[in-house]
Queue: 3 jobs
Job 1
Amino acid sequence: MAMNVFDISARAMSAQMLRLNTVASNLANANTVSSNEEDAYRAMRPVFETEYADQLKQSGLSTVNVTDVVSLDREVTRSFQPNHPLSDEEGYVYESAVNTDEEMVEMMEASRQYQNTLEVVSTLRTLMAKTMRMGQ
Amino acid sequence: MSAIRDHLNVHAQALQLREQRNGVLASNIANAATPGFKARDFDFTSALQQAVGGGDLAVTRSGHIPVGGGGGVQMQYRDPTMTSLDGNTVEMAVEQMEFAENTSRYQSSLEFLNNRIRGLHQAMRGE
């Protein structure tokens, strides 16, 4: 596809925003429990993929696409809580597989990259405005 | 007319190349989190030399095959100081520095162009 810096940045920012949303979902579900192993919550991650411009050799332009959101294949913790309303026949509940520290790091990285991209756009926009006034 | 174009030529070409490089660096920054992405860039100096015609051999007959020039910029991969485990070679600090440098050089080219245009205006008005 043909693209300019605004397309590139818009796509990159929505990708990072989606990443932030998955982090929010993961953190929100960090302490949820389930009555069976299959239904227990596992942390989600977006899958990023580069999308290249048509004339890549000349332009060198590319942006990022989110192709999928996957649940991580992680072992859920089985804990014995017979008084819990969601416990199974044997008295166990299954806690969600979310590492909050990892999610916080993910959140910091995503928000920093979002800011970087935004910074790029605002710089380029200023430059374009200056260019429009060329010769005046 | 071509005298005016020649008068502006170097800075006009430089501005165009700086803009293109901004796009390339923006792409690198956009792909900072994409696994396996290789950061790209091009050598501004040689690209400018090629654009203003300094790099190619003279062609004196129609049958001659021109060497250099006309091919646009030569994209290259950035040589990373440290690759990340997922194969991504975008280093944020490097890209941001390059971007900062490139944008300020873009502004200088723009300023040079403005000065030249102002000079032409003055010459036309005969002040």
Job 2
Amino acid sequence: MIIQRTAGVVGKAIAYLTMLLFSVMTVYPVIWLLINSFKSTPEYMADKIGLPKEWIVANYAGAWKLGSFDMAIINSIIYTGFAAAGTILLSVLAGFAFAKISSKATKFIYGSFVLGILLSITSLMVPLYLEVSQLDKVIGDLLLSFGWLKDARDFHFFYNNRIGMILIYIGAGLPISVYLCTEYVKSIPDSLVEAARIDGAGYFQIFWRIILPMATPIATTVAVLTVPNIWNEFALVNIIVSDNDLKSLPLGILRFSGTMTTDYGKQFAALTIGLMPMLLFYIAFRKRITAGVSGGAVKG
Amino acid sequence: MVLPLRGKVEKAQAYWVFVTPAVFLYLLVFGFPIVLSVILSLSNYNGGKMFGGDPWTIVGFQQYQKLVGDPNFWFALKNNVYIVLVSVFGQIPLGFILAYLIYRKIVRWGEGWQAILYVPAIISVIVLGIMWKLVFASNGLLADIMNHTYANAFMAGLNHIIQSMNGGFNITDDVVKQIIGLSNKDNLQAFSDPVSEIKDLIVTGGYSLQNIDSFKIDMTNLLSPKWSPDFMNKADLSMIPIMFVTLWCWTGMYLILFHANMQKIDDQIIEAARIDGASEMQVMWNIIVPNLSGVIANAAILCIAGSLNTFALIWAMTAGGPMNVTQVLAIYMYQNAFIGAPNFPLANAISMAIVAFSFVLIGVTLYIERKYGGKDA
């Protein structure tokens, strides 16, 4: 009994220490970042660990201005907002069709979406880039032949174009979200749809009045999973967008850090600016985010 | 009879109207690029208009042959394998054990630990990558902490030596040898005859008991061992920070995933096993692992797909450098397509290689799960 109890106490101590170690390793770097964002560069060089003697808030103003982070944040909000909304709408639409409207095509199409969960968009970034740059040329030539465009050389629908970037993000998010929405809509009773059909409702009415309102929980899940993915996305926006006015926050941070290698104070301030939006998003929606992740909807 | 027919047409119309937008964008982002990649990897296309521009043709498997004989490709693949290994055999077991500790209430405040450990997974890897780059830099946080630790140890040793002088300040060869004993070889390289030279330094420095503190500080600055592994600039060490950050970043996500699925297990089985005398280790290994084998396999699949495609984190930390030692397949592909003279066929061949490796490893995972996994997963 005594041996067992001692073993239990030692085990518990080790367990707590493990948890504490991992938590400190998670939290400390972030706090370190925050503390150093208020130091001047000479002070950081002299003391990397302690609190700043003088809290220099100007680091933030400087970084904000030099990195044009206002623009970057607006761009990120545009990309994330529209792409997440589009992903949800298209996924629930497709999910409704796959789950409630019988068709021989479902097996193949839906299967393709599920298979797509395993495909990472990073591995396809080169062919995707080549594809959209060719599409830009084709669309440009087409508009030129219609006389809607005077010069097709600088016309881009995807490259350096917010609309194109948003469409690509929607496509990239579809496999997992179509899967989640289809499985969810399957759980809505068929009788609801059938009753509405007998009452003479069209499929669009059923979608707007029954399916979409009932799909709110899964739409929320898709939203909390998609928003961080798009907000943090780097590989695609890095090759599709080169215009500084269209760059998202991660691109802005990387560019800033590359040009400000010796100004540590501003560098830390920029990193804090980059970290805050998703940290606040996490604090606001933590329960929903973790519920979504544990639903098996992981992509890492 | 008219009505059902109209119903059928309406149904088919609705189906395609609902499905088409998603299918269209899916083809845009996944379907066509894959087909295009297969074609281009077999071609001699190298930029320009694909239709109506310079003519290009299919030339066969040249690029794949080139890859097989390309040491850079195998080197990048090796680094990817490191990341796959640290992910599958690091993140997953660690996440699992931490989840178990919380699930079995071996530690309290489970909710709190989970909330903290998930944080890295939701923040941009660009931000985190730059942050860790600053930590691991040769003049970064880690070097600073280590040097402080060494300096403190040196100072403590120095204090001990001063105490053993019994209130005097008598620098003999023996004392100098003791001080040198606290230092390390690298610091002594500057001296041809350390003992006499350092003794001279101390004697001519005018140190006494009155300014003993400045003696200590000067000696520490001069002789305390320096810690400079300089991870980011050394070929044989530079993958270590990347592997560490990979582990650091995603373990919390697997913790959340496993913990949520553990809660679906009927805990009466566990209580019964505990009453029968099974240890926590036995419960974990014999009950929880088999019950969660399907979830573990899914986690492994996502882990593999993610690790083979790792790009942004390494791009932010090292961009594949120095001298390409942290090269991975995705960065090698990027370089071939977008840096310097493009080689689109080769880049596409690498793209297809990544997809192929992912599917092979995923197949292996599914096979292992089917063969050894629990039944009710």
Job 3
Amino acid sequence: MSTKAVPTAPATSVGHANHPAARDLIARHHLRWWEALPWLAAGAFYFVFHDYLGFGTSLMITILFALSLDLALGYAGIITLGHAAFFGAGAYTVGLLAFHNIWTEPITSLMLAALAAAAVGFVSGLVLLRTQGLTLLMLTLCTMALLQESANMAHDYTGGFDGLPSLDIAPVFGVFEFNPLYPDTQYLYTLAILFACFVFIRTLIYSPFGQSLTGIRENLLRMHAIGAPVRRRLVVCYTISAALAGIAGGLWAQTNAYVNLSALDLDRAATVLIILILGGYGRLYGAFVGAAAYMALEHFLARIYPTAWQLGLGLLLVVVALYAQNGILGLSEVLWRRYRARRATS
Amino acid sequence: MTELRLETRALSRRFGALVALQEVDFKLAAGARHALIGPNGAGKTTFINLLSGALPPSRGHVLLKGEDITEKKQAERVKLGIARTFQINRLFRGLSVLENVCMSVAERVGAAPTMFYPVGRRTDVIEESMHLLDTLKLAANAAHRVSELPYGRQRLVEIAIAIGLNPDVLLLDEPAAGVASAESHIILDAIERLPEHIAVLIIEHDMDLVFRFAKRVTVMVGGALFAEGTPREIEANPQVRAVYLGQAGRG
């Protein structure tokens, strides 16, 4: 419950833009100081944990993947358990092009990965997004399973179960060597891509289009009743989300220098969903918090209890599901409000 | 005879073996204050669903200003000027009252598909929405989340979203449903102050509200039109009293 005091509006018919609610909406997209924190942390990480840049790179890829899911699931309310389909489509695009020596330039490869994933998202979205709820969930799962099985069966091109090893990626801008032996390049390159994608996503969710996605999530029937082309908006959103997941997949393939069937695995799709729920979905920064929390937990729990570290994760998820349905961010918001309310009363 | 806004010809709808609506010929005049009453299950909400395009008819036609719109989808009909409200609130519950209204205003003025500038840049949409809330005496609640409002005020937001579409025809499906009778005057207040040019069709069980608001009343029974006339004629009609008013009472 919000405890914010809302002053009443002036009774005049002019100056409506001065009403607190209007001012709040007009200024909603403004940057807040704490939004610099993830980027400062990424910069600090580079210098302080220089030996762990590989970990940092995969963390940022996971964040991007979770962000792409947040757009579809958190904002538009598209219930999906098959988001790895797009991650995999991007990864295999980069992998196939590099493995068969067709195209190895990293940045344009990522663009192609985005295009390929967007195409998969668009075509499957046209069919899937006619459905809702469990049907939709199952169909997204099926799409992913079909893709994975296709990748498995097209053994001659994709390497099947063994995947495509030792991908040769050309230097970034033709200058900076790009392979796992050069974690500096990989880290900074991934950071730059994540930042660019984040700026795009942030712009999108604060736009009228983003607001209408929220409307679809909040009340589908009402969106129809106010004349919104609901299906078109959902397909556009799903396609964009797929493209971003494809970029994440492409980055994963480039930085690991291999692609295998795990890119299209249910395990991957479920993990990114867990990350988003853990961090808090539909709130932009949930992807950051969730990914960092998940990967840090994975790292430390696996060290303490290598054989059953997922037990700890499971327990944490139970706690989140019971007591913090809006994830870590939602919980911090509630605590912050309570703290301020207590200070205001004392 | 005043100009016609909405007209139906032999409009029918079946759900399997159930005939929900049967050969309805209905006329709604420009600027009308028209009430549709009838016992539960008479087909009133089905009728609104057919007019708004949420459901396709089994047979018959819907005409807007003389033009056949039977084949047009709901979104197209909204653009042509038909707006509706729902008997059970269908609001964006997690959003503020202002955002709820902005949603429909943005859709109407064509701002909604824009991806590359923030919502806040469209001050025209925000100002218009605030103005609308002001006229409905909801401005003080503009910043509140809809789910935090008392039910009566939520019903007003339901109406505000529809007016945000600037309709020629407004279909109100039981706007006072579920509102405590002590509060129902705020609904009557709001619909009495609707712009005159809007043709209003209202379904309502609260007979006090119907007889105070409507200039014309149509009675529907068993999916067919049963009687039509001024409120006084309907009240005096012994058959209507027998099938409907007798059961519902006049409060």
